[in-house]
Specification:
single chain; 7 helices; binds nicotinamide-adenine-dinucleotide
């Protein structure tokens, strides 16, 4: 029996990188999946991949910054699978630019997706979890929620917000059987890195390599399953040693 046998898991940003690796691992552990993303093309491909391997999976196109589209995620999940047990709240965008060149619109966009989006989807899930009497959320923050770095003020502020949002929500629902934790990845080889110099990122990491999405998925599975049954309001930093420096 899988660690998520017959659980229904919603994964935002679930068609690429860390989200897609987690979808594959969750499916192998018996979960039914709702993959949420704005990228319909990738969504259709991974939905078909999981179905062809015998898993139950649907793709829902949604922008996590739209309240209406976020509500639709949970309406579709309930009408398709009848319940929701797990949210991996993972959609995000990167942003690297010197602060003196950053426009307010760019700041707002980053914070809107990386912090407001996490709040909106968490809130919608919590409403369902309260009705059901239980639930688990894993938010994706970043090691940059713990330490600063030059050139990504908006991203780092948003991710720091996710870390403390996670603490606050964890405390708020601790007595109501809803556990809420965060994943804080280091540099992971996914499309979000774009053309960032891989050698620079590798050298900055004590283990002298980038992390793999599959290594993040294992940490997410820990926090999403009963293996972490006494953990809430906290973060798991998986960064090849970066924040230990
Ligand atoms: N890769 C890294 O080095 C790294 C490090 C720390 C944190 N993270 C975080 O991990 C998460 C996953 O990123 P990834 O590395 O897998 O990158 P990725 O680009 O492969 O995946 C991110 C996904 O989020 C989706 N997305 C973006 N904005 C969205 C929106 N408004 N609504 C719905 N979907 C949206 C994208 O379409 C994409 O599929 C992000 O929150 C990111 O900030 C990544």
């Amino acid at each position: 029996m899988g660690k998520l046998q017959d659980k229904v898991a919603v994964i935002t940003g679930g068609v690429s990188g860390i989200g897609a690796a987690t979808a594959r691992l969750f499916a192998s552990e018996g979960a039914k999946l709702v993959l949420v993303d704005m990228n319909e093309e990738k969504g259709t491909v991974i939905e078909e991949e999981l179905k062809s391997q015998g898993s139950e999976a649907i793709f829902v196109k949604a922008d996590v910054t739209s309240e209406e589209e976020v509500n639709n995620i949970f309406e579709t999940t309930l009408s398709t699978f009848g319940k929701v047990d797990v949210l991996f709240n993972n959609a995000g965008i990167g942003a690297v630019k010197p602060t003196e060149e950053l426009t307010y619109a760019e700041w707002r966009k980053t914070v809107e997706v990386d912090l407001d989006g996490v709040f909106l989807v968490a809130q919608a899930a919590i409403k369902e979890f309260l009705k059901a009497g239980s639930g688990v959320i894993v938010n994706t923050a970043s090691m940059y929620g713990w330490v600063g770095s030059p050139g990504s003020a908006a991203y780092n502020a948003a991710k720091g917000g996710v870390v403390n949002l996670t603490r606050s929500l964890g405390l708020e629902y601790a007595e109501r059987n809803i556990r809420i934790n965060a994943l804080c990845p280091g540099f992971i080889e996914t499309p979000i890195l774009g053309d960032t110099d891989r050698e620079f990122l590798t050298n900055a990491t004590p283990m002298k390599r980038l992390g793999k999405p599959e290594e993040m998925a294992k940490a997410v599975l820990f926090m999403a399953s009963d293996d972490s049954s006494f953990m809430t309001g906290n973060s798991l930093v998986v960064d090849g040693g970066y924040t230990a420096q």
